[in-house]
Write a structure and sequence with these properties.
Layout: H1 2-34, E1 37-44, H2 50-65, E2 70-77, H3 82-93, E3 99-108, H4 110-117, E4 120-123, E5 128-130, H5 144-159, E6 163-168, E7 171-176, H6 180-185, E8 204-206, H7 207-212, E9 218-219, H8 223-229, E10 235-239, H9 244-252, H10 255-274, H11 280-298, H12 304-322, H13 329-344, H14 350-354, H15 359-389, H16 416-420, E11 425-428, E12 435-440, E13 443-449, E14 459-466, E15 469-474
Parallel strand pairs: 1-2, 1-10, 2-3, 3-4, 3-5, 4-9, 13-15
Antiparallel strand pairs: 5-8, 6-7, 11-12, 11-14, 12-13, 14-15
Length: about 475
């Protein structure tokens, strides 16, 4: 009996040892994996705009999915939109993953705000940080209310990093990790800080000056050196790469492409009105409108009400043309709504929240209006020219019937009277858009305007007759 107990105890002991070994080995493996830090790197190397804010959001989301231990932002920018920069800096401050910024060359204006939000700042030799005053697109200093907003934002960002405790002799001194006064001085030239800046100068630091004043943790030449200075060992670097969608949105958002899309929208509508039914031209206009509004909507510039305004304008124009006789209030409102929708879609809505009734707001809206108006004007000119030339070009000669149907070959005209009207003058009995009714010598005939529309009552002249159809122009 004792022998059996001894064997049972030996079995339990041996099993326990083996289990302990497995647990230790498994723990070792897990510990080894957990020591490998994931460093997620992405670039902010363009103007701070909606597209950059969208990419920043994507980068933080991917970093969280990858269980990243650190985020490093490679930054090189002269600044951009204050509201977009504020969104990025808030994202950094609230991030559960430590965020470091590596300034490759410039962190000016909005770039300085983003940098100060990071837990640590590293700079390449020769890089600069500061000059965060708010300026307009011409580089002129904006009024005081803008500077006040930027000063408070810079100060709050610096204060978010807290204070360091310094012991000097028997005294304990609390010192800001990043001095809020210096952060403000990057905006306001009136601030004087001893041994930092004189009154009348905006603070901009070199790498060495930034280290001296607590706005840089070290000088590095690349991300690997940043990681080494941050004492991160056994790491794996993962990088953000813009998606195909990002590249497409960036392409469609370029001013040149936006201008062409506006021309396609207007040109498509024009050609559709010249032909009966719904065809290719209208499909082109709809497709161009989608390509125009989609990137602006994704980047947060175009709002639902702006899209609705444009669509309402198109509906009013269609009603005016196909339902309501003449051209009146509905048509005028349709044109105004459509152009307003196109213009305001290009304007960031911060204009209405923060800059309304200011010179800057008027400048931004006027600039967009001129851009849209010029695109529409060029589209109309090109459309009218194409409508006259496209079917007479050699490339389209196969679309035109060139055979002659002679009387001696058995071909006769259905109504010679229509041919006799060529050169006669009358007036439009209805509006021709482009088809309608005309009256010549108290007789009513079907006719089609050769170019554009002809209002009811306007004098017309018959210029040709084809397939029992009279073609007229304004007299």
């Amino acid at each position: 009996m004792k022998k059996h107990i001894f064997i049972l105890m030996l079995f339990i002991f041996t099993t326990s040892i083996l289990q302990a070994r497995v647990i230790v080995e498994n723990d070792t493996v897990i510990s080894s994996d957990s020591l490998k830090s994931i460093v997620y790197v992405f670039n902010i190397n363009k103007e701070i705009a909606p597209a950059m804010w969208r990419q920043t959001q994507q980068s933080f989301e991917i970093a969280a999915e990858e269980n990243a231990d650190y985020i490093i932002i490679k930054l090189n920018t002269y600044g951009g939109m204050v509201n977009m920069a504020d969104s990025i800096r808030t994202k950094i401050i609230n991030s559960k993953i430590p965020v470091y910024v590596f300034i490759e060359n410039n962190a000016a204006s909005a770039g300085a705000l983003i940098s100060i939000a990071a837990e640590r700042i590293y700079m390449r030799k020769g890089a600069r940080i500061g000059a965060a005053s708010v300026v307009d697109q011409a580089g002129k200093i904006m009024p005081e209310k803008y500077q006040s907003y930027m000063r408070s934002t810079m100060r709050a960002t610096a204060e978010s990093h807290g204070k360091d405790t310094i012991v000097v002799g028997n005294d304990t001194i609390l010192k800001w990790h990043r001095d809020p006064n210096i952060a403000e001085a990057m905006v306001d030239p009136r601030i004087y800080i001893e041994n930092v800046t004189d009154t009348g100068k905006i603070v901009t630091f070199t790498a060495e000056e930034a280290i001296k004043n607590g706005f840089c943790e070290g000088i590095a030449e690349n991300v690997e050196e940043v990681i080494k200075q941050a004492n991160i060992e056994n790491y794996e670097i993962k990088k953000y790469h813009p998606t195909l969608l990002d590249k497409i949105i960036g392409f469609l958002s370029s001013p040149a492409i936006q201008g062409l899309l506006i021309m396609a929208i207007v040109g498509g509508i024009y050609f559709e009105l010249q032909t009966p039914g719904i065809g290719f031209a209208l499909g082109l206009a709809v497709f161009a409108a989608i390509l125009y509004f989609a990137p602006l909507y994704v980047d947060g510039l175009a709002e639902n009400w702006e899209l609705g305004l444009f669509i309402l304008g198109i509906i009013l124009i269609a009603l005016e043309i196909f339902v309501i006789p003449g051209f009146g209030i509905a048509g005028v409102l349709g044109i105004i709504f459509s152009i307003t929708g196109l213009v305001l879609s290009m304007v960031d809505n911060i204009v209405f929240e923060f800059e309304f009734n200011t010179v800057q707001a008027v400048y931004i809206i006027l600039k967009s209006f001129v851009f849209v108006s010029v695109s529409i004007f060029l589209s109309l000119i090109l459309s009218i020219w194409l409508s006259k030339k496209i079917l007479t070009a050699n490339a389209f000669s196969s679309l035109v019937l060139n055979a002659t149907q002679k009387k001696e070959d058995g071909f006769i005209s259905i109504d010679n009277k229509l041919r006799e009207l060529i050169g006669h003058v009358g007036f439009a009995a209805t509006m021709l858009r482009p088809a309608g009714k005309i009256e010549i010598e108290n007789e009513i005939y079907d006719a089609k305007a050769e170019i554009g529309y002809i209002e009811k009552g306007e004098k017309i002249k018959v210029i040709r007759s084809e397939n029992t159809q009279l073609y007229v122009v304004k007299e």
